[in-house]
Amino acid sequence: MRTTEPIHGWRGKHRHFTLSIMAVVLVPIVLLALLLAPRLIGISLFPVGVPLLGADPTATVTITPQAKHLSDTYILTASSQVSKPDMTTREFPTRLVPGSLTDSRTVPTSGSAFVSGVQARGYLLFVNSGESPAFVPAGITFTTTLGVPVQTTQSVEVPPQQNGQ
After folding, report:
1. What is the Cα 153 distance to its own chain's centre?
2. 8-37 burial string, b = 16+ CB within 10 Å, else e?
């Protein structure tokens, strides 16, 4: 018995096989491209909510704080009547810091001259920060910062300050 095969049968199988191979190769490549495109080049064909295929739901937020220069002036008062700093009245306790300072210098002069002496005159300013009058008797000797002794010639009553005056 003799059988004959159709002429187009072999070509049809070959064409079907070629299409199957192309589908097996192209489908994974397309799927891989769809998975990697949002992460590599930042474009997405799917909305953000689609798992694995959508773009990453991330955002970059930059916060820049406002810079402002603040300054103020405060009057601080040292007082022997407070024992610890008081921030509301801006007072802090006084304390005695012992120490001494000496200095000596020799400088060349441009010449010399004799000046006859005259009786000095001047003013002493007494400030009473207490609440009652203070008395300075005659004959008390004070020494200036230059070492010059100054003596009172009469008694003085120093009234207390009123309203800081």
Report:
1. 58
2. eeeeeeeeeeeeeeeeeeeeeeeeeeeeeb
Residue type, 88: T
pTM confidence score: 0.28
The H or E element that residue 23 is part of is: helix 9-40
Q: Contact 139/152 with Cβ under 8 angstroms?
A: yes
Structure token pair of residue 162: 């009123």
Going from N- to C-terminal start, the domains of the chain cover 8-56, 123-165
Give the count of beta carbons closer than 10 Å to the beta carbon of residue 65: 5
Could you tell me if 87 and 77 are in contact, meaning their C-beta atoms sit under 8 angstroms apart?
no
**Per residue in 84-143, pLDDT tens?**
888 888 887 887 777 777 888 888 888 888 888 887 777 788 888 888 888 888 888 888
